[in-house]
Amino acid sequence: MHVTLRQLRVFETVARRGGFTRAAEELHLAQPTVSVQVKQLVDAVGLPLFEQVGKKIFLTEAGRQLYATCRQVFEVWSQFEMTLADLKGMKQGRLRLAVVTTAKYFVPRLLGPFLKRFPGIEVALEVANRDRVIERLVANEDDLYIMGVAPQSLDVEAHPFLDNPLVVLAPADHPLAREEHIALSRLVHEPLVLRERGSGTRTVVERYFAERGYALRARMELGSNEAIKQAVAGGLGITIMSLHALTLEPMQGQLVVLDVEGFPIERSWFVVYPRGKQLSVVAQTFFEFLKTEGSQLAASALAAGTRAQTATRQSELRRKRAARVASRPRH
Ligand code: PGA
User: How many Cα atoms occupy the beta-carbon half-sphere of 237 within 13 Å?
Assistant: First the structure.
């Protein structure tokens, strides 16, 4: 069978992007060129690879098999390219990372020093919620995944590399901001703003309360930590979120971390990949960086964020105490 690597690349892009036009855009080719490449591949294979229903195209059984094969071929090929670069003494190639929404608060910051150290490496970073990141993991679309907890149902390698404390966040003028050792049961009566279903944070929070006999009801669900912080500052309720989402907080003074019993919920960030996956040189390099320098950088950013939050809370408590003293009747 006479098939070229170029035809496979074009076919893989059409299959992945679900259309000839989109594939042509991605590959910077004219659409007829894409069609010709696919046609030649169909002739070589001897079976149709796509079928058209209305305006959409779908893979046939032969197309699906070829698509899976292409993914393997390209994976092995990029391993080879990277090994070659490594043999030449250069760390070069593409690092494909998929991280959960909340990890966007520290992963991009780590990439700066990493890429400075290894200028030959390019990074493609995908940010999505936990469910979507797990789908990508199952489809083996990336080199490494960063998430709160490794999925129990999948056969993966998971290495914790950083703390991920979840805290209770309220608007600074919330009555509970004045209190210490707040009982968990009191949170249940507060209006809650929670992340969407499928988010790792949401899953952990629901489980945490369920294990203690409380069912949670969200007053509002939002798909972004930033939107939740705005909603909380605007008085729509309280929330539970990773402290990492507060480390670069431009809303200092508007939000406060409550002192609730059992909090912070202590979690970790994990770097995850399918067990048995042969990591590329670039992926191994990033993995090593994460476990050493990367985790130290992120941990010190987190510690600075915690200090800032504690200071905000203490000044809030001081302000409230002063107000109480000032309002006491004088004799
Ligand atoms: P999330 O995931 O951003 O989807 O909530 C965070 C986590 O898994 O800890």
Answer: 20
Amino acid at 138: V
By the 8 A CB rule, do 171 and 233 touch?
yes
Pair of tokens at residue 210: 């369920």
Atom of ligand 1 nearest to the CA of 203: 5
How confident is the model over 21-74, as pLDDT tens digits? 999 999 999 999 999 999 999 999 999 999 988 888 999 999 999 999 999 999
Establish whether residue 239 lines the binding site of ligand 1, counting it when its CB lies within 6 angstroms of any ligand atom: no
* Phi, psi dihedral angles at 24 (to 5 degrees): -60, -40
Task: Please tell me the distance between residue 200's alpha carbon and the centre of ligand 1 in angstroms.
Answer: 4
Handedness of CA 293, 294, 295, 299 (dihedral sign): positive
Share of the chain above pLDDT 90, in %: 63
Ligand 1 neighbourhood includes 285 CB (under 6 angstroms):
no
Work out the average pLDDT over 198-221: 92
189 CB-near residues (< 8 Å, 6+ apart):
none
Which residue, 150, 249, 256, is CA-closest to 203?
150
- Residue 102 Cβ inside 6 Å of ligand 1? The answer reads yes
